[in-house]
Amino acid sequence: MAQVILLFLLLIAFLSGFFFLWKLPVINPSKDKEEEASISVIVPARDEETSLPKLLASLHEQSLVIEEIIVVDDESEDRTVKIAEEYGATVLSTKESGSTRTGKSAACWLGAQHAKGDYLIFMDSDTQCAQKHAFRNIVAQFKRNGDTGLLSIQPYHVIRSLYETLSIVPNIIVLAGLNRYTFLDKSIPKRGAFGPFLFVKAEEYFDLGGHEATLYTHMDGIAMADLYQKENCPVTVYGGKESIHFRMYPEGIYQLIQGWTKSFTYGAKVTHPVVMLSIMLWVMSTYLVLIGFVDGVMRVDLTYLSVIFITYVLHSLQFRWLMKKVGRFPWWTMAFSLIYISAFLLLYLWAVIQVYFLKKVKWRGREYKT
């Protein structure tokens, strides 16, 4: 009887893995090769000498002419400013602006106030355009959406080091947590957006208060989405495959831990209970497989072990299907979901400790009260 119950739970958990991230829309290629727009790109940057060159180089390669690139230096202590100037960007400084505010939202707001374009694009320093027509396609998509609202893209994760594979499950969970990609598309309230890439119409942005209204949080994507949705302005969120890529936390595993733990619990606040339940069931499935395997070995039940092995293969294939939606990860990682899900749970536990017990998180040498 216990084996039947376990197999039933495995089936439910397996189906849950399809529920929360069934269909992830991406930016489609534009059929209009003459698409034009007056665009200002605003890049908040703090100690980004490693990532910034790749972003700026990709911006200069765009087929759509960019009116201006503004890099807002948020008290960097490395070569961020010099690199921005070498690429011809306009450089602003939060320290020299006279404002008492620092942080990403303050930097975005400062850049927006000096921007000249009809459209504003806010990009994190670790992002980059995946190909030369990326902006042309994004502008076309925004206009197809009615030329209004907030368009956000979660960049497609491309890795270079083994430790970066620890971001597989967090990337999946972060996308699922916005409630936008389930079977119940119209039944579950959609929440949030992704801060690494935001596209807005300048006039509408300033009418709503822009990043000045999000200075209370370092999760500007979620706050900006709330701002737009409160005014009944559409918020659309896309996967970044073939449009916007990034390499998250290239400076090492410590940066990865800091980066993810500052995000987890805030994102969980916008996740619908049904979606959260499906995520929890899917996370549980990898441990159910382990329990089934141990039980089968102890019972010396080859038939049962065969069923568990088939379940493990199906779970691994599903894990691969999910990870391909969010990033370019090695194929062999599909066989080690237990390791990656366990790492995610440890990161999440550390995030809970920081947010609810220590009441602070750290990022880029700063402490943020929670």
UniProtKB/TrEMBL annotation:
Domain Glycosyltransferase 2-like: from-to ranges: 40-153
A GO MF term: transferase activity
Keywords: Membrane, Transferase, Transmembrane, Transmembrane helix
Domain of life: Bacteria
Membrane-crossing segments per the record: 270-290, 302-323, 329-358
SUPFAM superfamilies xrefs: Nucleotide-diphospho-sugar transferases
Protein name (database record): 4,4'-diaponeurosporenoate glycosyltransferase
